[in-house]
Amino acid sequence: MANITTNPPDFDLLINQLRAGNTMSSAAGAPQGKLPNFLKEYRKKYGVGNPVNLSFGIPGGGNSNSKFERFVRAIAGQESGGNYRAENPHSGALGKYQIMPSNVAAWSKSILGRTLTKKQFLNSPALQEQIARTMLQRYVKKYGYSGAAAAWYGGPGVAKNWARMTNPQGQYPSIANYVRTIMRRMK
To answer: What residues are paired with 99 via a beta bridge?
Structure first.
């Protein structure tokens, strides 16, 4: 059995390689024949319940150029540049989508049925994706894309009146500027 280190391999990469029928890279640390056991151990150690199929239940989830996928990429690009390990030293926001720690706890409980720790969240790209995409999907369904961007940045209370919110958020852009930036990034 492969030795899993404290720096986990990219779970999403492993799943995608398996789906594509590719042999596992040596960096993954598991020979092809031992992949199911490796994934079982990985899920147990890093808090991943079942492998995540991100294309189910997400608008446009199977099309990498769908409006929803462009929206998700725009949020991730604006928030962290796509860095799953990002931690904001000022706000404490975490991961690729810069989710606030209190939201990590509440959203993981709501979506996964259990509360993730900061470490579990940062060590699992698959869970970050599942939580962020589920919440973004909920916001888009409720507020549309502009409102969803506003809710992501400033909370659901600003989703309907974001265009009037032109004051900077401390050292960060105003809610209106953030939404406009996300909409430009989607194109």
So the answer is: 94
In a domain, 52, yes or no: no
**Is the domain of 94 the same as that of 180?**
yes
What's the pTM value of the predicted model, to 2 decimals?
Answer: 0.68
Please report, for residues 31, 38, 76, 177, the alpha-carbon distance to residue 182 in angstroms, rounded to integers and kept in the order given.
41, 38, 10, 9
Quote the tokens at residue 141.
Answer: 């369904």
Is 161 part of a structural domain of the chain? yes
The span from the first CA to the last CA of the chain, in angstroms, equals 45
pLDDT tens-digit profile of 67-101? 999 999 999 999 999 999 999 999 999 999 999 99
85, 122 in Cβ contact below 8 A?
yes
Domain co-membership, 76 together with 41: no
Q: Do 165 and 140 contact (CB within 8 A), yes or no?
A: no
More confident residue, 170 or 45: 170
Q: What is the DSSP annotation of 14-51?
A: HHHHHHHTPPPPGGGT--GGGHHHHHHHHHHHHT--S-
- Count of CB atoms within 10 A of residue 86's CB? 17
Q: Give the span between the Cα atoms of 155 and 157, in whole angstroms.
A: 5
Contact 121, 137 (CB under 8 A): no
Domain count of the chain?
2
- Beta carbons within 8 Å of 30's beta carbon, 6+ residues apart: 2, 14, 24, 38
Range of the domain at 75: 67-186
Is residue 79 domain-resident?
yes
